[in-house]
User: What shape does this take?
Amino acid sequence: MTILVTGAAGFIGSTLTETLLKHGDKVVAIDNFNDYYDPARKRANVAPFQNHANLQFYEQDICDADAVRQIFDKHKPQAVAHLGAYGGVRYSIGRAGLYTEVNIVGTVNVLEAARQTGTEIFVFASTSSVYGHTTQLPFIETDPCNLPLAPYPASKKAGEVIGYTYHNLHQMNFTALRFFSVYCPRGRPDMMPFMVTDRIVKGEEIKLFDAGQMKRDWTYINDIVGGIIAALERPLGYQIINLGRGEPVLMADFVEIIEDLVGQKAALTTPPAPASEPKITFANIDKARKLLAYNPQTSVVDGLSKLWVWYRQKVMVK
Ligand SMILES: NC(=O)c1ccc[n+]([C@@H]2O[C@H](COP(=O)([O-])OP(=O)(O)OC[C@H]3O[C@@H](n4cnc5c(N)ncnc54)[C@H](O)[C@@H]3O)[C@@H](O)[C@H]2O)c1
Assistant: This one.
């Protein structure tokens, strides 16, 4: 199968691309290597597979509708994993225009090219952040999710909604996967698992909001990639599906696990959480289990141990 992956040099996209190539799929990859974080990390992400015979890599911006259309015209992918986006809840504050341009207009460009060239299955990377100010726990897909706390989740909710239009008008199979705090090797430097590890090692200060009383449902990268591939293989009409672990972890405990791995205490400051941060994320994963045979395998303790091994091999040695 030919699968087009956007955001293919990023944390999740590069792991997905590498896994698809190992499975024998043909991959058409798009990424513009933007500088949201150091593009050298993205180059390093793709280095292990960039010369693979079944890979076509385009250094391209999804905001360029004509260029995206040309890539689709040439390869006519059967399935799309659309991961290319600006992530980061707090970074999106004050940047609603940028998030609208990349995460909404860029998504429409990819959807439009997919429609015009007959893509059968479109998988969209959404986020647990769309649950925003919900009071319903665990988070369940039937929640209206109309209370996003920042431009980032608002832009992802918009992507889910426009996906319905393409399903309705063009019978496109559109699956939005709501990822819950994904972590581990290649993990983003702006996210807590890497940041906490790195700052403990360097003896730098770490902001732990609300004295570590917030909870996050951390999900190991391999479990997420398994869920994406299952979605790429299944025409499901229009679906929104949580991909989490279903076991929220207190942030204070999370930091303690990393302290134990590193063998050093963190230098913590404990400011109140900003208004963009939900107190808890907690996935109901019944739908993923049913529709995608999703069954997350890696506990937070095991996953963070793997992160620590990777950090020592790839980051500390530099
Ligand atoms: N990591 C998480 O915990 C998490 C949680 C929820 C949702 N998501 C979503 O999953 C997807 C992948 O996230 P990630 O953690 O791998 O982030 P990432 O930043 O590592 O990857 C995103 C990639 O998209 C690329 N990109 C951004 N704008 C682009 C553009 N205009 N044209 C082409 N490429 C562009 C970036 O260069 C980057 O390589 C994103 O859509 C993100 O919103 C991630």
